[in-house]
Backbone:
């Protein structure tokens, strides 16, 4: 299975934030993600005299800043999708899964595909599994084909996660 156009561009960034997920029409899916970076200009923003002051003194916030990329992924149709809060999703078991990619993954074997094989049917084509691993959510998408991926401009500021 070959990687879709835009696959490498999405995987070239260090972090992603999910910004928008919508169904523009029945059974289509649109996802907007923003690149995020360790913002060295935001260093030292820790409140003084807290228990974490010493631990966090040399840390940097990870956030979308000016110059970060914004991507749109669009599936004309999908089989299923699952959005999981990152903290609980990142603790799952990945043994036995096979994928390529880092932040945007293309699976050839996964627990999600196994679930769909058990719980769905009447597929007209092989089901493909894509996963976006963002700092705030994990998004699994099953479809018959890859999404259209395009960079839709730089991040609009201000956008800060609290």
Residues:
């Amino acid at each position: 299975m070959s990687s879709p156009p835009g696959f490498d561009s999405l995987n070239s960034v260090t972090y992603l934030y999910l910004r928008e997920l919508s169904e523009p029409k029945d059974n289509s899916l649109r996802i907007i993600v923003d690149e995020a970076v360790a913002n060295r200009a935001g260093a030292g923003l820790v409140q003084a005299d807290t228990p974490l002051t010493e631990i966090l003194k040399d840390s940097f916030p990870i956030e979308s800043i000016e110059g970060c990329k914004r991507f749109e992924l669009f599936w004309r149709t999908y089989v299923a999708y699952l959005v999981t809060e990152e903290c609980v999703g990142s603790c799952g078991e990945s043994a036995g899964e096979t994928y390529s990619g880092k932040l945007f993954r293309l699976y050839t074997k996964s627990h999600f595909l196994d679930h769909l094989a058990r719980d769905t049917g009447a597929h007209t084509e092989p089901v493909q599994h894509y996963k976006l691993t963002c700092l705030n959510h994990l998004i699994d998408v099953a479809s018959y084909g890859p999404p259209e991926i395009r960079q839709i401009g730089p991040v609009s500021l201000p956008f800060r996660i609290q």
